Amino acid sequence: MSCNNKVENSEQSEEKKPELIMHKPSEMANMMNVLYAFNLQTKRQILAGETPAPMPLDLLKLHSAEMSNGHSRTAAWNSFVNVFIETQQAVADTLSDVALKERYNAAINNCLACHKTECVGPIPKIKKLLIN
Ligand code: HEC
Asked: What is the superkingdom listed in this entry's lineage (predicted)?
């Protein structure tokens, strides 16, 4: 997937392994896909009344993960990333007074806040993570 709906035309990965024909996703794209899958799982666990599984990623790596062609840490990115990390971590805070569903939706709304300026393509997919 890419951030817009145009076909990506990136000359970034010159290292070609014979068995790899597809364009290699960036480290950041991989992290984002793990975040998506993790939150989808969390949504199902919340709806089933289960305790969410722990976050499998070190979220601080968002500050250093390599991004694909055309993306960089803009001022907007920098203004959204820390609040996202805080709200995503708060989902696992068992001592919180705020309802789990509200904390979860706050994290997803921060995914969306950043995506509105930094990467619009996945927004419809991310919106489906919200719990109504
Ligand atoms: C601080 C900004 C920011 C936050 C917060 C953020 N994203 Fe992203 N996301 C990006 C950017 C920029 C890219 C493009 C990265 C690249 O292509 O290297 C991206 C890419 C993606 C992609 C596409 C990955 C691919 O295969 O190309 C998905 C899906 C995604 N994000 C989901 C999420 C979800 C779900 C969350 C919250 C749990 C989230 N994002 C939080 C900025 C953000």
From this structure: Bacteria
